[in-house]
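Our preliminary data section would be incomplete without showing what the modeling component actually yields. Below, a chain of 125 amino acids is followed by its predicted structure, encoded as tokens that our downstream tools consume directly.
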Amino acid sequence: MEDEVFDQIVSVFHDLVAWIAAGAMVFGGVVPYVPQYRDIRRTQNAEGFSTYVCLVLLVANILRILFRFGRYFETLLLWQSIIMIATMLIMLNLCTSVRTATELNTKRRSFIGQKPSAGASLQRR
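Predicted structure:
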């Protein structure tokens, strides 16, 4: 009787550890991007973030998904690739929107209120 209870507890503990490990494996690659996303969104500055890293990770994860058609691998790795692709697309969307807004504001500020210099007005005459 005690052995059956112990076996059930060990089985539940094993399943719990397996689920936690699977979750860490799937979402572990996304965790470093959460603080970067929050920082870029808060400061509206994406200068320290490389979009080439996003490109490389997108290509690698897309190739991993395509590789699965030829040689089957665990579904857990498939979900990891899907979540990483979604994360990279979210990061690229944020970075491009922040950089576009920054460039538009910089260009707009550089032309407002500028008066032609004295030398430029003399050259036009």
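The two ends are 106 Å apart (CA to CA). The mean pLDDT is 85. Preliminary results of this kind motivate Aim 1 of the renewal.
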